[in-house]
Amino acid sequence: MAPLAALARTRMMAGGTAAEVAEGLGEGVTAVDVGWVTAGDLAPALDAVAWELEVDGVAEATAARGGLHVLKMLERTPATVQPFEDVRDAIQQEERNRLFSEEYDLYMTELADAAYIVERLPEEAKGYRPVESPSLDADALGLLAPFAPGAQAPEVEESPGEAAEESSAETAEEADGQP
What we know:
The protein is mostly helical. It has helices at about 5-15, 20-25, 45-50, 85-115, 160-175; strands at about 60-65, 65-70.
């Protein structure tokens, strides 16, 4: 055990509070009141040590996340089972919330699957995320290409009468030089 941790433990066993002990040991030593804990609330190494302590007992320094820890058991309250009638409403509400959450998630998934979503992104924003499914906006079916901005107008076949009228109009313009 590190000398500083041993000194902290000795001072706590002599009746000093964690705050007093930490204050007298310099930088890097802090006092934390973790409050009430249940099994599994602490890191596994600290949890094992905490459940072995008696009230007012001080544990040896234990290595865990953040360095060495010296635990002191201030109070212990035995676990109790509350009568069902006292917790019935809370259990019902918790179950309602759980079922609502499940149904809501399912509903939102179905809604998203059925939605027709058109993305109109600026050119520089395209590719910011992968496209998950083809959409008409991406012209997946090729139906919208003829109507896209900048698309070339389809060629229209002219009837023989229309072609003759246009060609005589062109000739008249050329002869006068005026339309």
